[in-house]
Write a structure and sequence with these properties.
This protein is mainly alpha-helical. The protein has a single domain, classed as Hypothetical protein af1432, CATH 1.10.3210. It is built from 16 helices and no strands. The chain is globular, with a radius of gyration of 19 Å.
């Protein structure tokens, strides 16, 4: 256990010292602070986003997509913020930074980054759908948590490529969940590693806790967002957005009951998620 702790500590130091990984881009961090500041105006947020041409372009493309029902009508960042809302803007801002991070290849030979991004996006989309069905206060917060739930695997790809490849191979050969293979090879999983990244990004505990618990059979009453992300992750695997071996993932009865998903509606929910993923991919130009 001591060796494991030391290894994670060493990994935390490497993450903190790596540009573009241990810290979010400056404009991204500033936008997130403003979005979370109740005294900040949309004009202030828009002016800050306009300083980053790539981010402003992504926001305008997203706002002009069919997903938001105003294709070709949004001309300014301020208009985009008004149409999308601040929570959705936060998701796009973090998503842009996260997508750039996934584009930086690590040394792992077996890690499929395209499959990773598609699974992350599918989980995020499923989380948003579930949050709306459950009446959760902020579906965009659920989307963001779903998008980031496997972020630790990017760190593994970058700094633990040999061990990560061994875990992927073990998952495929024994047809076991990749997280189980990670623990067998490394002594910990992407969940613990992802929490190191979340800490470096100064994420609030309200976001870090559900990310830490997204593999637990946790009830909605105990950890609402953790329950939603757990279910969304399972649903993403079930509809074909896989990571690791094609394991038969099942939604635990406690989680399904806690979210109030009747058996009769389950298949319809899965189909709705697939359709929603297609819409989100189009909105984000993926």
């Amino acid at each position: 256990m001591e060796a494991e702790t030391m290894e994670l500590s060493a990994l935390a130091i490497r993450v903190a010292r790596t540009p573009g990984l241990g810290m979010l881009p400056q404009v991204t961090s500033q936008v997130l602070r403003l979005v979370d500041n109740p005294n900040a105006s949309p004009r202030q947020i828009g002016a800050l986003i306009e300083r980053d041409a790539g981010l402003a372009s992504k926001l305008l493309k997203t706002a002009n997509s069919a997903y938001y029902g105003a294709p070709g009508k949004i001309k300014t960042v301020s208009q985009a913020i008004s149409v999308m809302g601040l929570s959705a803007v936060r998701s796009v801002v973090v998503g842009q930074a996260y997508q750039q991070m996934t584009a930086v290849r690590g040394a792992s030979k077996r890690f499929d980054r395209l499959a990773f991004w598609q699974h992350s996006l599918a989980t995020a989309t499923a989380a948003r759908v579930l949050a709306k069905l459950k009446g959760w206060r902020d579906p965009e917060e659920a989307f963001l948590a779903g998008l980031l739930h496997d972020a630790g695997r990017l760190v593994m790809d970058r700094f633990l490529p040999t061990e990560f490849d061994q875990a992927i191979t073990l998952s495929l050969e024994r047809v076991i969940p990749l997280s189980d293979a990670e623990r067998e090879v490394l002594g910990y999983t992407h969940v613990e590693v992802g929490d190191l990244l979340a800490e470096q990004w100064n994420m609030p505990e309200s976001m870090r806790e559900p990310l830490r618990r997204h593999h637990e059979d946790v009830s909605f009453e105990e950890c609402p967002l953790g329950c939603i992300i757990h279910a969304a992750n399972v649903l993403a695997h079930q509809v074909g957005f896989l990571l690791g071996a094609p394991v038969l993932y099942e939604l635990p009865p406690t989680v399904r009951q806690s979210l109030g998903i009747p058996d009769a509606q389950y298949e319809g929910l899965r189909q709705a998620i697939v359709q929603e993923v297609v819409k989100v991919q189009e909105a984000l130009r993926i």
